[in-house]
Amino acid sequence: MTTEPEEETNVCGLSVRRQSRMNGGFSSLRLEAAGAMRTVLVSAESLQLTLKPELTQEEQALTHAAAAGSGRPKETLKAGNEDLKEMLESNKESLKLEAMKRIVQLISKGKNASDLFPAVVKNVASKNIELKKLVYVYLVRYAEEQQDLALLSISTFQRALKDPNQFIRASALRVLSSIRVPIIVPIMMLAIKEAASDLSPYVRKTSAHAIQKLYSLDADQKEQLIEVIEKLLKDKSTLVAGSVVMAFEEVCPDRIDLIHINYRKLCNLLVDVEEWGQVVIINMLTRYARTQFASPWKEDGILDENEKAFYDSDSEEKQGQREAKPYIMDPDHRLLLRNTKPLLQSRNTAVVMAVAQLYWHLAPKHEVSIVTKSLVRLLRSHREVQYVVLQNIATMSIQRKGMFEPHMKSFYVRSTDATHIKTLKLEILTNLANEANISTILREFQTYVKSQDKAFAAATIQAIGRCATNISEVTDTCLNGLVLLLSNRDETVVAESVVVIKKLLQTQPTQHCDIIKHMAKLFDNITVPMARASILWLMGEYCERVPKIAPDVLRKMAKTFTSEEDIVKLQTVNLAAKLYLTNSKQTKLLTQYILNLGKYDQNYDIRDRTRFIRQLIVPSEKSGALNKYARRILLASKPAPVLESAFKGQLGQTPLPWTNEMDRDRFQLGTLSHSLNIKTTGYQELSDWPAVAPDPSVRNVEVIEPVQEWAPSLGKAKKPKSDKFYSDDEEKEEEGSGSGSEDSSSRSSSSSSSEESGSESEEESSRDLEKTSSDSEKSSSGSEASSSESESQQKKKKRAKKVTPRKSKQAAADSDSDENGNGPVGKTSSSSAESSSDSESDSEEDSSSDDSPAPQKKTVAKTKPKVEVKSKKEVSLLDLDDFSAAPPSAPKSSVFSSSLLSDLEGLSLSNVSSAMQVTTSSFGPVKTYELLHHMTGKGLSAKYHFPRQPCLYQPSMVAVQVILTNSSDHSLEEIHIGDQSPASLNVHCFNTVERLEPGASVSVSLGIDFSDSTQAANFQLCTKEDQFSVSIQPAVGELLMPSTMKEPDFCSEQKKLMGMNETSATIAMATANTSKQNISKQVLSVANVGVVSSDQNNLQRFAGRTISSGALVLVTLELRESSTALLTINTEKTVMASMLLRDLKQALCQA
Amino acid sequence: MPCSNFVSPAARKERFLDRRSQPPSSFLPPSPRPSASPAKMIHSLFLINASGDIFLEKHWKSVVSRSVCDYFFEAQERATEPENVPPVIPTPHHYLISVLRHRIYFVAVIQSEVPPLFVIEFLHRVVDTFQVRGHSPLLFSLFMSASFMPTHLPASSPRLQDYFGVCTEAAIKDNVVVVYELLEEMLDNGFPLATESNILKELIKPPTILRTMVNTITGSTNVGEQLPTGQLSVVPWRRTGVKYTNNEAYFDVVEEIDAIIDKSGSTITAEIQGVIDACVKLTGMPDLTLSFMNPRLLDDVSFHPCVRFKRWEAERILSFIPPDGNFRLLSYHVSSQNLVAIPVYVKHNITFREGSSQGRFDLTLGPKQTMGKAVESVLVSSQLPRGVLNANLNPSQGTYTFDPVTKLLSWDVGKINPQKLPRLKVNRLDMYGEKYKPFKGIKYMTKAGKFQSLDVVEPEILLTQKLRCLNPYAPSPDHSQSLHVCRGFRSERSTFVSSRCNDVWFETHS
Question: ipTM surpassing 0.90, yes or no?
Fold first, then answer.
């Protein structure tokens, strides 16, 4: 025992002494704790415990206690436990340990070992760590049952709470708080409060866990605990974040106000929090966002309106009147979406699911689909994971077919899947079925019907039935198929088919006598009650169509009536009644016979029914008025049942019929409630979006960051901007813009771009500062952004003034970044902004493109030494963020980031070449292609060109500008894009053009992912009345985007792409093309590549990347004498290379 | 395999009664907790074996009576197959979430709303901690009805010690104290605390025979004396003070192709699941960068937490501080939308002799012409229907086994060379008198035969491409990774293992 002398005296002394050490904040608590301690002592005394000063070791005290306490249960001790007790009381450590191990084994088997408590508890202060841990295990398990004795161990923990080793402090708190003894609540409270301000984040984490334990022990402590939570929420350690949010969720989930000021911090920390914490935080933030932000879902409708306004105002004079967007996504909302997106790549399936549900519940509709791939990936995981993920996909696929349709094959059932997995996959396949893929799906289903798993086969038949009703084209096919199944050997299959056919026939009121007759013939062989009942019902319902057969079936039923199942009996009575009404001559006696049988049936339902039917159909004095209507009542035409997704209702294991009405999607995705389709204990309803978003300023934090000295210039440069961004003025402006004051609206749309980028960098900076990371890249990126921003402002003021190409480029990039920040809202505005800046820059681009890399180089060179200094300063190598060269990942990876990246590339430690930069378009002259001639288009004509802008919608898409002109004499309405082929084609459609006046034209932009192939994209251009099939076939050069690189990079990249990746040809050039300028002009007209400046006169180099996959395409033109040249193309896309070669050859040969 | 095989229903019932007859009072806390809302997260854990015995229980909060498992047993009884037990079961006061691994059900008891995947993922993580990843032969046999399955390779280097080789009931029972200590560390109040196996190994050392002996003699313990430093740092997955004389880093790229092929051998759907497993034994705190020649092939990726997301997003470079020892760096998925080439084709045909109970089952397997590479360790297993009495086989290559109890026919083909076309012939299919006609019994597996115009789901293929070690010190020009070791790392030598399979497997352009 290594206890200090003064502590030996009295357990009470400890708390008293501590009292003097502590500062004022806890005084009342301390008193309470001291009181509790006294109670402990009293209760110990009541156990004849002697805690006299002369006792020098705590262990001795405990031994006494043990001796005293063990008196009672002695009789109950079994022989086996007796020797354990002896072992525990021996002096040998190894014996004690052995005993504890055996006790733990007892506990693990669920055997009762509580009688050993006194013997065990005295080892709580053991030096042997393993022994101690096992004692802890025991203590936590039995303390609740042996409260008095448990109190004896408290002082040990109290002492350990002061230990210099954080590990010991934490584990003491863990055990202390796990002992569920109400009397020590004040002690726990004090311990938690102290631990919450511990220097070690690990101890603080433990205290967050302890909060929950204390709360579940004594809910009255709530108020005090909330204070601790509030304090811990402000903690900046990633270690604490998850645990404290967990505590928050448990103790005070409704105190959403505590989150406000921590919101941004949590978003930014999220990536680095441990995975379990991520799940909790994401779920909490989902709830938070649903209460704090305006719905992004209305936007589509609103956008349409705006789009129209925008296109109408193509002519200059209206420009100023353009209305501002009523919906602008709160930057904080965007921040959350952006920061959770990378977590889709977590290895933890729970994290992926949490992000998926977050996107489902929070993201604008068109962004949700980014979660698809990750969810599909999870399907490869364990069976149980599959089960939950499939459940969620099933719910999603009901609402959003398109999300999962491309992955349909991933839901094909494998014969080895568990039944519930199969059923879910089947459900999803059924949800995904549409006209285009139904034949494939039905073919799959046909194999499933043959499955050995009968439950699954039956479910498949149900699914076929659903497809048949949903897709009218295949109804007959399905029906025929199901009829074929009637001759199946398996009874369950037949029975299920009968049931489904019955439903289908109801929805198809046309003549299906043959099928009914066929089923009547099968009737004898079918034994499944439900199927028999279905056939009987069909007979009755359509008895007039099968006048000969129905009475015969009734005759048979009369024979077997008594031995039938209840459900069959009921239907027999029904059939009899209906036949009696339609064909009383033949069936009167039969009916009476059956009614008599039913009258004395054992089942009261059947007796009731019989009585009712008899009164209804058989005219008598008593039967009264209803009799007249019997026919109308019984033979009324019935509405066809709706074959709905079984999944919309209950699919779980407990069939609760009343839940069938309720859709599973009323629950938040990913929750237990969703999985079970019942409201579980503690489920919190996800609130609806607020009609008006609450004040966003509550999330503002004053940036007081200790780390600011890292980049003082940066902080200064940005601060005013960030202030401005979040200042009230700005908000007013945003709010005001909704009301549509002309002046501010035009301003806000243009200024928002710059401010947005300001916010971008502000967020970044706050992130920088919060983490103790060097982030030199970022600081330079931040300043880069802010400088470019100021430039763009300048530019705005002096539009007439000629802008330097670099600036204009930056501005373009800047406005792009706005889109990424702002989502779809910014898109329309920026397209105009970009096109204007484009026209300016185009003219200069040619001449200046040679110079542009130079200043970039300078920046790099300038920042580099700074970095080195910093990395020396850096304390740890462990930082997670020091490589993040890009700003927090935008949902659509952007030009902004890539151009920034190139500025920073020199800082990266990797040897990956700096050939990463992708610039905006480098060449102006636009070739316009005809998409739709006005003769074929009934007045609508369409032309398209490739603007060579990076596509706004997805980086892998090629931007296509389409100009729609109405050359008819009437206005065209609802111009939109219809079906696309091939099905895998990924097209971002333009928003529907509501109305196009005669003679007017609008230009809309499309994004098409050609996947780096020149295969034409076919789609339909639809108006309200007509549809026109059109196709866009890109020239190979349009599938590229320019990439600027320096010559050495070019050469090194080229070396990597030799051999089969090289394609070359010698060409004879037209004489007009010999000058360097003309050559590049020709090349650039063919392909969207960037010029690589070169010192060598006879060499010209161009670099680009394929848009979809980003593969490098390097073009080298080596001039030889007598106007021949060697044209070489290096790319791994060899097919593209040869096509490009052909195109270039053609262009250069022609004048 | 139906669990009821292990124990008769009567015996089960007895056990039920047994359980119920135990006085519940000794298991229940003396006083119910005050009226606070039910605590979230994992309350208790029960381990249940295939015969329905609870052989381990652990409670993180107040004790939940094990009678709660009766609801689970009911569900188990309803399910025809062990894996058909629904993973989430509601009971009146609790919810049971279970996973089945190695014929052991890990049943977590929870009291209120919690994301089910959270619990499921955690339970799987527990099993993964107990055992070496990939050592799960049982898993495969459960999943595959007809599969090509080479023995799963452990990483090509000696693995670091894991707690138990395979997580079996016996192993858990033998090491119950270690299991208990582990579970105690992994959850605090039902919320995961330390789940990184590197950290856990520092907290509680894996049992080895040597250590057990030493411990019994000296009385020293398995429990680490210090808090793992990783737990406190920003790199919770790595311990500090790692030292090796030979610094090595191994990366295995393993790709598995899941495919459904039809009777004629053509592919209905094929997907690739790839992983990069690493075994890194490097001194100090190395920061590694791994770049790919063609990162775009990695369609959808999931990372070990050590990988920096942003760097990947921006540059498609894997940058990370590796955990010490074995870990799965990333896994990726190439979906069925892309063209996935399958290295072999399988055709099968079943004929019956009219009026006899015998039939003939031909199975042909061969390499696809386009593949220039040999395929190794090919194993075909087909689940024959219960009616099959015996099967005599005539393999042209390799060996076969037929298990008359499970009716599992496995054909170990071995290596397929591009030239040879092995051919397996089953001469006879003997069946004993079931009520139905013999060919009825065959129906399940002869879907192909019955619907020639249709695609057929079976057999399914799981293919693990065996990886070969090329000359470790001279990475060949076509391999797709390169290793960059950055600061803080003194590289004596770094070793390389590269796969030889990748590029041909998935062409992504459509």
Answer: no
